[in-house]
Write a structure and sequence with these properties.
mainly beta
Length: 332
């Protein structure tokens, strides 16, 4: 949903795909107005590759749509009905990751080497492009990995790899590209509460480990009394104090399930500062994930509906089985 709450972006997979994606998928991006009486919906088609991370981002007013379209990044400027694209990851070059808008006009892209390539061979290049697909700024970092932008605070959050099992999450100030804080975590995290809080999914690559949200002013862990295991996929209100995520349970079943058997116990909506659970529910499972998802050491019977939050946390959106539900979150 756009920051001004006027537009909802819906990503639809064109066709049926069993298990985790390994190749290119064709997608439809539907941009639907919250008020169908005053605005008209639009559709954008694109090719999605697993290594591109987030598939698309909207500017604050949804006037600009940035899409990871195969090995290229495409910009659709809805204000003047123009478009452009830039080929960033041709052939066997490093992976491409779309990192969102750093301000009203510039968006972030990461070009990075595979994770197993330790420095000095592994590195990342962070590039900022404008609405005309023109490169405006860049930064190279040894060991760098995909980054996401926090426009409210003017920060960039990135993961850095030093070889072996050594990772850290860095908070980078822009436009100076100065690392202003770092933590020994292996997740990039999601910026919330106008860039003042960072929420992480599982730290250890284990779906039974808990979500953590940290206050960036002092690094303290918030709301320890709320235990949501793994969280994937985790979503936060970028300018609010709410988070929503899946509470997973994982069990070691080497003989019957291959590696781990996992399922979602509940979906939880909570205030990450106070620790208050606003709502929790047993998730609806998507029927199109028939059969077992076997890969990445997990066996997942069926994937639940995906949840996300609007910019200020006023709305909860759920999607699955060609259905999108939007609920207004009541004042607590």
């Amino acid at each position: 949903r756009s920051d001004d709450e006027r537009w909802i972006a819906i990503d639809l997979v064109a066709g049926h795909y069993e298990g985790p994606p390994h190749g290119t998928q064709h997608h439809h991006l539907l941009l639907v107005p919250a008020d169908l009486k005053t605005d008209t919906a639009q559709q954008f088609d694109f090719e999605y590759q697993p290594q591109t991370g987030s598939r698309f981002f909207l500017s604050a007013d949804a006037g600009i749509v940035v899409i990871a379209d195969g090995a290229a990044v495409r910009v659709e400027d809805r204000r003047d009905h123009s478009s452009c694209s830039v080929l960033l990851s041709p052939g066997d070059s490093p992976g491409l990751y779309l990192g969102g808008f750093i301000n009203a006009e510039l968006f972030l892209v990461t070009l990075y080497s595979p994770v197993h390539r330790a420095p000095p061979n592994g590195s990342a290049r962070y590039e900022l492009y404008d609405r005309n697909c023109k490169l405006q700024d860049s930064w190279d970092l040894p060991g760098g990995m995909p980054a996401t932008a926090s426009p409210e605070a003017g920060h960039i959050l990135l993961l850095r790899y030093f070889g072996g099992t050594q990772y850290e999450t860095d908070l980078v100030e822009w436009p100076s590209w100065k690392v202003v804080n770092r933590w020994p975590f292996w997740q990039r995290g999601l910026a919330a509460d106008k860039g003042r809080v960072l929420c992480f999914e599982s730290f250890a690559g284990n779906r039974n480990s808990p979500v953590q949200c940290r206050d960036l002013a002092n690094g303290t862990v918030l709301a320890k009394q709320v235990v949501v295991h793994d969280g994937d996929p985790l979503a936060v209100a970028r300018s609010g104090k709410l988070a929503v995520g899946n509470d997973w349970f994982m069990m070691w079943k080497p003989f019957t399930e291959g590696y781990y058997w996992a399922h979602v116990k509940r979906q939880v909506l909570w205030d990450f500062r106070s620790g208050k659970v606003v709502a929790s529910w047993v998730p609806q499972l998507q029927r199109d994930n028939a059969g077992k998802w076997k890969g990445l050491a997990f066996t997942i019977p069926r994937v639940p509906f995906i949840c996300t939050l609007s910019h200020a946390g006023a709305f909860l959106l759920e999607g699955g089985d060609e259905t999108v539900r939007m609920s207004r979150i009541s004042e607590q």
